[in-house]
Amino acid sequence: MSSMITTDSQSPVHTRVPTEHKPRFQDLCRMELIKVASLRSTWLVLIVAALATVFINLNGVHSDLQYLDRDLAHPFKARPDGQEMHFVYDPLFRSLSRISVQLMMLGSAAIGALTMFGEFSTGQIRTTFAAVPRRDGVVAAKVVVLCAITTVLGLIVSLISFLGGQAMLASRHVGLPITDHDAQIAIAAYTLVVPVCALVGMLFGAVIRNATASIVSVVAFLFLVPAFFGGDKYHWVVRLRHLFPGDAEETLTFWHGPDRDPGKWPAGHTHAWLVYAGWAVLSIAAALFVVKKRDA
After folding, report:
1. In terms of Cα–Cα distance, which of 226, 217, 228, 282 is closest to 249?
2. Distance (Å, rounded) from C-alpha 97 to C-alpha 296?
3. Which residues of 33-64 are buried (b: 16+ CB within 10 A; e: fewer)?
4. Domain, as residue range, for 39
5. What's the pLDDT score for residue 171?
6. Distance of CA 237 to the CA centre of its chain
7. Is 16 a member of any domain?
C-alpha cells in the first residue's frame, strides 16, 4: 500500500505505508506462554503440587511394605461372619492415590483461574484485546498453553508415581507392569484430570473475575459439592456424584483385581471419559461465551 505526497517545489514522492501485521495463532500462544512463564507464583504452585503428589504416592507405597510381608505370609483370614477372606493388595491404590491427585487438581484449577482473573483484575486484558480484537483467538491460545503445561506435568507426575511405586512392589511380586490395561487407563486418567480441572478453573476465573471468589468457588465445586452426594443409598445421588471430574478419575484408576468390589451402581469407563470430555468442552465454550459477551 502506498500514498503520494506532492509539494510546490518537488515532484510527487511516493511513501510506503507498512501493512498492518495480523498476529498468527502461534504468536498468541507464544504471548500466553510468556505471560505464564513470567508469573513465579504459577510455577511455584505447580512444582510444589507435583512434588507433594509424588512424595505422598511413593511414601504410601513404602509404608505398605512393612505390612505386605505379614499379610502375604498369612493371606487367608477369617471374617466376622466366619467366612475365609483372601488378602489381595491393590497396586494402584497407593501409587496413584486419591488424596495426592487432589493436590494436582487443586493446583491446576487455581492456575486455570489465575490465567483469567489475573488479566481482568489488573486491566491487562484491555491491552491484549486492543492488540488482538478477536477474543476467541485469545481464549483459544490460553486453552492451548494451559492444557499443554498441565498435561505434561500430569504425565510426568503419573509416570514417576506409578513406576516408582511398582518398582518398590516388584520384590513382593504384587506390582503391575506398565503394559497392564488397568495401569494404562489409570495413568491416562491421572494425567488428564489435571488439564480438565485447569479448564474448570479457567471457567470460574472468567465468570467471577475475582481472585479469592474464583479460587473458593472452584475448590467448593471440585471437592465440597461432591461430598453432598456421598453414600450409595439412592441411585440418583450416586448418578449425580458420577458427574464430577474427581469421581470420574476414581472410576478410571480403579483396579479390577480379584475380590475387588467397585461398589453399588459403579460408573463405567466410557461414562468417566465422557465426564472428562464434557467438562473440558463445557468449560471452554462457557469461558469463550463469557469473554466475548462481557466488557473487559
Report:
1. 226
2. 41
3. bebbeeeeebeebbeebbeebbebbbebbeeb
4. 24-293
5. 83
6. 25
7. no
What torsion do the CA atoms of 273, 279, 281, 284 make, to the nearest 10 degrees?
A: -150
C-alpha cell recorded at residue 193: 484430570
The DSSP line for 52-88 is: HHHHHHHHHHHHHHHHHHHHHHS-EEE-TTS-EEE--
Condensed to tens digits (0 to 9), the pLDDT of residues 220-239 reads: 999 999 999 887 788 888 89
Number of domains in the chain: 1
* Residue of 253, 248, 286 lying closest to 267 (CA atoms): 248
Q: Which of 250, 102, 106 is nearest to 189 (CA)?
A: 250
Residue 190 lies in a domain: yes
Interior CA angle at 95 toward 91 and 96, to 5°? Answer: 105
Residue 19 lies in a domain: no
Is residue 17 one of the residues assigned to a domain? no
User: Residue 241: what residue type?
Assistant: R
Q: What is the pLDDT of residues 115-165, one digit of tens each?
A: 887 777 767 777 777 777 677 888 888 999 999 999 999 999 999 999 999
Sign, CA dihedral 231-235-239-242, equals positive
